[in-house]
Amino acid sequence: MVQAYILIQTEVGKAAGVAQTIASIPGVLQAEGVTGPYDVIVRAEASDVDQLGKLVVAQIQAIDGITRTLTCPIIHI
């Protein structure tokens, strides 16, 4: 399994709805609204990097109100 944090910027006033929608997607472990340069931070997992990419591009980025994502895969050092 591969896990990642996905940092999300949203349109003004859309963060809570985006976080709630993302939380219901299979593979999403946690979705929280935050303050700072990003509006929502998500922790997600997938079977491999390709599946993680598909989760981000096909499911998360398709949500109304998202303007930008940054995916940070977790490494174990």
From TrEMBL:
Entry's transmembrane regions: none
Pfam families: AsnC_trans_reg
Domain of life from the UniProt record: Bacteria
Transcription regulator AsnC/Lrp ligand binding domain boundaries: 6-75
Protein name: Transcriptional regulator, AsnC family
Lineage summary: Bacteria, Bacillati, Actinomycetota, Actinomycetes, Streptosporangiales
